[in-house]
Amino acid sequence: MAERRTYSIAELGPRYKWIALSNTTLGMLIATINSSIVLIALPDIFKGIGINPLEPANTSYLLWMIMGFLVVTAVLVVSFGRLGDMYGRARMYNLGFAVFTVSSIMLAVTWFGGDAAALWLIGWRIVQGVGGAFLMANSSAILTDAFPANQRGLALGMNGVAAIAGSFLGLVVGGVLAPVDWNLIFLVSVPFGVIGTIWAYLKLHDTGIRKHARMDWWGNITFAVGLISVLVGITYGIQPYGSSQTGWASPMVLSCLIGGVAVLVAFVIIETKVDNPLFRLSLFKIRSFTWGNVANLTASLGRGGLQFILIIWLQGIWLPQHGYTFEQTPLWAGIYMLPMTIGFLLAAPTSGILADRIGSRMLASSGLFITAVTFLLLIILPVNFDYWAFAAILLINGIGMGMFSSPNRAEVMNSLPADSRGSGAGMMTTFQNAAMVLSIGFFFSLIISGLSSSLPSTMHDGLIAHGVSDAAATQVANLPAVAVLFAAFLGYNPIQQLLGGQLSSLPPDQASFLTGRSFFPNLISGPFQSGLAVAFGFAIAVCLIGAVASLLTKDARPKDRESVGEELAAVAGESGGGPSELVSPAVER
Fold it and tell me: Among 79, 151, 191, 488, which is most exposed with the fewest C-beta within 10 angstroms?
């Protein structure tokens, strides 16, 4: 990465923007596939390294395998976006591809087991998150530099399609590969990472303004410490503490949350005092940037935990009731959630094109309103639903999210000065990723609260009715609700895991019934629906807030549209393209 020169778009030619789009789309796709591929593969991973993740001593391994990647990307994207503004977005993006590829190789070659293997995997997943943060922080800024304003909605929409589609494709890819060999879920990224790294090194160039400045070290440190503390507190808030089903009253969790917020307050004060702040608070004077980020934050809060809840719903209740063994449920949960991906793939690029033509404000707001309606429909839907009704709701949910995502990203990025696009994109991604972690914590906590109110008595009475002793039934019924959720989430047979050796003391027919495909799903359906209503009620509220915030942005609709004929001629080299092609994004504004 010795190339330091900044190019204009005219020098790079009309094809360059499509090269930038294809490479950054590959980067976002592979990063987001890896953010979710582990979710479906966790049972095979823990089986492969010889650890039971449901044992209390191992729960932290489970949480960090799920959350570590998201926490790291949330913390680092602003810093890496700032580095892109200072030293070149293409350079930082290319570095991210290289780090991501090396970490994928190290994850794939895990050859040992036990606690050491769990720590190795978590450590390299965190490094993989570092590479992902470089990719996420700079991809939007590279596209905003490369594309004229009237085409950014399309470009950022395609990039957003890759990001969201990757998170769902990861579920299917993980479900297919993990049963064959869990190492394959990491190895599959390596060839794409090698190709993407070489391709980015050879073809991507810096085209925006670079502002060399001193790094805001105190800002970086306080931001990282504060945000990590808050996210760690949320992560451990899901676990039980004492007699409570959740850990929100734990001194450690409270210390992380209160201390983290205090450090973040100090960070905001520091940012008002330094010459070259990490967080450019002045950007919040831009109306579209501020309200666009509020909408992005609330939308991520609403949909972030959705994937986890749907997986639990499918794996723990619906799929076993429809003839699937618990071992089969991880793969089929990913397959049955594909309508959401299809809806997003249809809506996101289309809404990006429309945003370039009619503005983004109404599209983004309508998308979140539609998403809120689908959450209401999911509340109304019976727990043992007709699949086609469920699929239709997921399809519409994906359409709503796609209608919001592309216009929202284009609105925010178009509002930024050219020399702030890296840090601005990093700030936007930080809000999104931090909200995802918050959402997972909130959704799990709300579901657990709903379960804990009625699950213990339902569990106790159900077990007693089928021959389990009162002492054993009481012991199982008093286990934390999160253990039941994690068992269902991991595709384990929940009753088999919870009763363990006590099954051998039961008559064979009763033991077979308790561990069959109907007892646990029927047992948990009522309590789960109570928790579902609370969690999705929260999602409705935040999506409606986001819809209002989207209306408060200021449409900046480009007027200098390039015709299709001009675009094709420019790409073919038959003309110089439209006027917007001859202007470097560094001076476009």
Answer: 191
Residue that is written with structure tokens 């489970």 in the block: 62
Tell me if 41 sits within 8 A of 189, measured CB to CB: no
Q: CB under 8 Å to 564, separation ≥6 — which residues? A: none
pTM: 0.78
Report the C-alpha gap between 450 and 462 in whole angstroms: 18
pLDDT digits (tens, 9 = 90+) for 519-554: 888 887 887 888 788 889 989 999 999 999 999 987
Determine the distance from the C-alpha atom of residue 91 to the mean position of all C-alpha atoms in its chain, rounded to a whole number.
Answer: 24
CA–CA gap between residue 399 and residue 345 (Å, rounded)? 8
List, in sequence order, every residue forming a beta bridge with 199; answer none if it has no partner: none
DSSP letters along 28-56, please?
Answer: HHHHHHHHHHHHHHHHHHHHHHT--TTSG
d(CA 228, CA 75): 7
Single out the residue of 199, 75, 190 nearest to residue 129, CA to CA: 75
Distance CA 433, CA 426 (A): 10
- The answer to whether residues 87 and 211 touch, using CB atoms and an 8 Å cutoff, is no
Write the pLDDT tens digit of every residue in 433-463: 788 878 877 787 777 777 777 778 888 888 8
Q: Is 319 helix (H, G, I), strand (E, B) or coil?
A: helix
Please give the single-letter amino acid code of residue 285: K
The two structure tokens encoding residue 342: 């299809």
Cβ atoms of residues 289 and 415 within 8 Å: yes
Residues in the chain: 589
- Full DSSP string of 460-510: HHHHHTTT--HHHHHHHHTS-HHHHHHHHHTT--HHHHHHGGGGGGS-HHH
Both tokens of 8, joined, read: 């204009």
Q: DSSP 3-state assignment of 6?
A: strand
Question: Cα separation of 151 and 416, whole Å?
Answer: 16
Sign (positive or negative) of CA dihedral 34, 151, 412, 423: positive
Helix (H/G/I), strand (E/B), else coil: 395: helix
CA 532 to chain centre: 20
| Residue with token string 């986001």 | 546
Phi, psi of 213 (to 5 degrees): -155, 165
Q: Where are the alpha helices (DSSP H) in 381-419?
A: 387-414
Q: Are 427 and 439 in contact (CB under 8 A)?
A: no
Task: Please report, to the nearest 10 degrees, the dihedral formed by the alpha carbons of residues 529, 300, 342, 44 taken in order.
Answer: -70
Q: Which of 118, 119, 76, 82 is CA-nearest to residue 100?
A: 76
- Among 21, 62, 333, 30, which Cα is nearest to 167's? 30
List Cβ neighbours of 229 (8 Å cut-off, separation of 6 or more).
256, 257, 259, 260, 263
* DSSP state at residue 188: T
Q: Is 560 helix (H, G, I), strand (E, B) or coil?
A: coil
